[in-house]
Specification:
alpha/beta, binds ligand BJW, 16% strand, 8 strands, 9 helices, elongated, single chain, Rossmann fold, two-stranded antiparallel sheet, SIR2/SIRT2 'Small Domain', 255 residues
């Protein structure tokens, strides 16, 4: 059983707005490899940072499309885990919770989270590489498939290195980071910007930053609390501690 500091549980119980930023670590316990985890099988010889770029797609569209097709299959077989579900339950306990995810796997939505800010897109969707319009791939064997409107290649609707974060996601995420009382950074290496700047903005605005990760990150030094363990265990433990704090507060009020 993981011990959650009592002052953190009390603070979370009283919070008016909680912002949660998740990274690929939260889906690790669902069997989806983290972004920087060693790739397996056919993909072991490629570095993810080199495939997730517009330059790689321009050079080798078939290879990049096939990498995403492989990852789509892994995600389709995966199920949300206790960490995803704990965020759904936490949202029901606090007046306001903003969930921002860097993940492209859609597992938060499948767990029941609504209004998720998808900072880096979603690999289940495809867009036209020329016009940027979200489009269903047509039937056929061509890889990558072509846009039915203009004939350009379709690409996954994700944000690659060097590309802009969708402006509405950027605005909503930074607004939440700057207005929350508590910022939970869950399962992210905090290496990729501008997502990593969200915790920095929350800290600068006076929020209590909590990091949930088995490993330290470049943000650990300013986190008020480090819950060093897997998200699938730490988030349910945090939720249970908040429920305990709420029960204690009620019995003290009624005593
Ligand atoms: C567990 C766990 C368990 C394991 N429980 N935890 C400032 C400084 C330096 C560079 C830049 C900067 N600003 C911008 C840049 C450039 C670049 C960047 O950040 N580079 C860095 C690598 C240095 N950023 C960009 O290019 C961004 N665009 C941009 O800045 O545009 C500017 C612009 C302006 C105007 C015009 C044009 C452009 C875009 C970044 C897009 C990133 N996209 C990706 C790919 C998405 C599609 C895909 O998945 O293929 O997003 S990259 C990849 O990294 C992916 C992830 O969402 C993201 C974050 O990774 P994440 O989730 O943190 O995964 P890992 O693997 O790194 O870490 C997993 C963690 O989980 C670890 O810590 C484990 O310990 C932990 N863990 N098990 C809890 N059970």
């Amino acid at each position: 059983m993981h011990v959650v500091p009592q002052d953190l549980a009390g603070r979370l119980r009283r919070a008016r707005h909680v912002a949660v930023l998740t990274g690929s670590g939260i889906s690790a316990e669902s069997g989806v490899p983290t972004f920087r985890d060693a790739q397996t099988g056919l993909w072991a010889k490629y570095r993810p940072e080199e495939l997730a770029t517009p330059e790689a797609f321009a050079r080798e569209p078939k290879l990049v499309w096939q990498w995403y097709a492989w990852r789509r299959e892994i995600v389709a077989r995966a199920e949300p885990n206790a960490g995803h579900r704990a965020i759904v339950a936490l949202a029901a306990r606090v007046p306001r919770l903003t969930l921002i995810t860097q993940n492209v796997d859609g597992l938060h939505q499948r767990a029941g989270s609504t209004d998720v800010i998808e900072f880096h897109g979603n690999l289940a969707r495809s867009t036209c590489s020329r016009e940027g319009i979200v489009t269903e791939p047509p039937d056929g064997d061509e890889v990558p498939p072509r846009c039915p409107r203009c004939g350009a290649y379709l690409r996954p609707d994700v944000v690659w290195f060097g590309e802009m974060i969708p402006p509405p996601a950027m605005t909503r995420a930074f607004d939440a980071a700057q207005s929350c009382d508590i910022f939970l950074s869950v399962g992210t290496s905090s290496l990729v910007y501008p997502a990593a700047a969200l915790a920095e903005a929350a800290h600068a605005a006076g929020a209590c930053v909590v990091e949930i990760n088995p490993e330290r990150t470049p943000h650990s030094h300013f986190a008020a609390h480090l819950l060093a363990g897997p998200a699938g265990e730490m988030l349910p433990a945090l939720l249970a501690a908040v429920a305990d704090a709420a029960r204690t507060a009620i019995s003290e009020r009624d005593a």
